[in-house]
Amino acid sequence: MDQNNYRHFLAVLFCFLFLSPRVSCQLDYRFYDSTCPNLTKIVRYSVWSAIANDTRIAASLLRLHFHDCFVNGCEGSLLLDDTSTFKGEKNAPPNRNSVRGYEVIDTIKANLEKACPSTVSCADILTLAAREAVFLAGGPFWLAPLGRRDGTTASESEANNMPSPFEPLQNITAKFTAKGLDIKDVVVLSGAHTIGFAQCFAFKTRLFNFADGKPDPTLDSSLLQSLQSMCPNTADSDTKLAPLDSVSPNKFDNVYYKNLVNSSGLLQSDQALMGDNTTAAMVINYSKFPNLFSRDFGVSMVKMGNIGVLTGKSGEIRKNCRVVN
Ligand code: HEM
Ligand SMILES: *[C@@H]1O[C@H](CO)[C@@H](O)[C@H](O)[C@H]1NC(C)=O
Ligand SMILES: *[C@@H]1O[C@H](CO)[C@@H](O)[C@H](O)[C@H]1NC(C)=O
Ligand SMILES: *[C@@H]1O[C@H](CO)[C@@H](O)[C@H](O)[C@H]1NC(C)=O
Ligand SMILES: *[C@@H]1O[C@H](CO)[C@@H](O)[C@H](O)[C@H]1NC(C)=O
Ligand SMILES: *[C@@H]1O[C@H](CO)[C@@H](O)[C@H](O)[C@H]1NC(C)=O
Ligand SMILES: *[C@@H]1O[C@H](CO)[C@@H](O)[C@H](O)[C@H]1NC(C)=O
């Protein structure tokens, strides 16, 4: 152990032993440097393999971290399976038949248990998988503070209260500010919708009978036509998929914002960012300056990753992300 590692090791040790207020138990970029030196490599390779098999999984992994952090904080509660005596979050309507990627997290966890048993939390795996997924999809890289521990409970009711594509911007913003995020984070993190897909039911009301029997007037007419043919006005199209960014659905770029400027957002909640002067100015900024978006996205992801984390002696390091030890 070099001197820095040793100092770090001591800090973590003190944190665990005494929960001393003088020794910080906050997250740390180098948290696993001595206990799991190959961590980043293992996560990166696992995410790379998963993307090689299924391009969309990058988006799914990014969304997993969001859905974890917004419910009980970033402590892996999303990953807990229901049992006969335990009701988790996976079957809450915002997650059921929608959130995907759990098997990839299982694979990463299994690989990590071989390299460094009972060391890396599932919550940190979600953080790193999201970071690697964005980078491998062509997006920015940022340093991710680590040291989260896994929760032993879940909140079905909070999971039901996830931001919804059907609620107005003020409501979504209120849900972000309740987590310590702000309006800028709403705009920046919504940029995650530059990759991935949504089911027709999430935006179908915009296509046929939005108001006065007409489609949503804030939806570009040629995109409207193509969405109407992808999502015909019948219930059996509800689970069909459309790209959140119709121009470059697998590339993490700033085209999401260009689309919004062009009235080509998919979800009503996406396009709503252009319906408010403050957020519209930010959208226009990001549509012009990809590097500004890249930088701000990493900053907002770190903020999101800090929501309600468990550190020190709180929680546990799960051996299997689906069950409490
Ligand atoms: C601002 C409020 C948000 C709303 C209302 C929202 C809503 C949605 C909806 C409805 C879908 C499609 C789900 C489905 O059809 O099954 C979706 C997908 C997605 N969301 Fe969000 N989202 C929000 C914020 C975020 C944030 C903050 C992130 C990440 C930082 C994110 C990342 C994603 C990704 C990557 C997908 C595509 C997933 C895939 O293809 O598997 N979203 N979102
Ligand atoms: C890290 O991975 C390398 C191979 O890439 C291996 O030689 C080394 O033993 C691993 N270190 C640990 C601590 O697992
Ligand atoms: C490949 O991706 C498909 C679709 O997501 C999934 O069902 C399958 O399990 C994946 N296979 C591997 C080996 O990861
Ligand atoms: C938005 O929030 C208000 C106040 O909390 C609530 O009354 C309203 O039902 C919400 N709107 C939607 C569409 O969820
Ligand atoms: C959207 O804007 C870009 C320029 O920013 C333009 O090249 C593209 O054709 C526009 N798309 C639509 C549907 O208007
Ligand atoms: C928003 O911008 C529009 C058009 O520039 C302007 O007419 C309106 O007064 C602005 N609203 C607010 C609340 O600033
Ligand atoms: C646009 O970006 C610049 C930084 O390049 C920043 O100073 C400015 O405040 C941003 N404007 C908005 C409306 O976010």
UniProtKB/TrEMBL annotation:
Keyword annotations for this protein, in alphabetical order, are: Calcium, Disulfide bond, Glycoprotein, Heme, Hydrogen peroxide, Iron, Metal-binding, Oxidoreductase, Peroxidase, Secreted, Signal
Q: Does the keyword Secreted apply?
A: yes
**How the cofactor binds, per note?**
Binds 2 calcium ions per subunit.
Q: Which residues bind substrate?
A: 163
Site, as annotated: Transition state stabilizer: 63
Which family is this sequence assigned to? Answer: Belongs to the peroxidase family. Ascorbate peroxidase subfamily. Belongs to the peroxidase family. Classical plant (class III) peroxidase subfamily.
User: What name does the UniProt record give this protein?
Assistant: Peroxidase
Organism source for this protein? Morella rubra (Chinese bayberry)
